């Protein structure tokens, strides 16, 4: 997770009571998800929080600065997870299963930011950079799939890049329905997703 740097000259102030930098960022992400990033202004955010626009700019350079921090929050932990799996110990198959399982936990922990990430369309430089990072994640996961195929652990008749996209697609679908206060906790969902993805739904004798 990316934290706002308290030592940055533009972000040293603590803000009004109840609205520190982290709270402002959370409110911005919620508003971007509700209204859309392009349709949301700093004025809208200030109104939402009941503060002035200068109070927002005291902590953040721009609306794009807020977007960058939100997308970093969505991507940083997953990037570390996939990077470690790519060069980790053990079989590629075991590392691939672990990545998929833990990516569910990462999504749940950062669900609002991940939701925002999945809705961007590359309209700004910040969005394009985030989309490039998503492509890198797909590529690294596809490489793990290829390794697992070479080990003989996975079938070889489905393209690895398609497998990668489908696996991440299953995980990303959680933003549409998963709620922390719902019936299933993150661990249960992660276990079920990995079981379905790697073992299927066919009943075993």
TrEMBL record:
It comes from the Bacteria. Transmembrane segments: none annotated. InterPro entries: DNA-bd_HTH_TetR-type_CS, Homeodomain-like_sf, HTH-type_TetR-like_transc_reg, HTH_TetR, KstR2_TetR_C, Tet_transcr_reg_TetR-rel_C_sf. Residues 18-78 form the HTH tetR-type domain. The keyword Transcription applies. It holds the Pfam family TetR_N. This is TetR/AcrR family transcriptional regulator. It comes from Cryptosporangium minutisporangium.
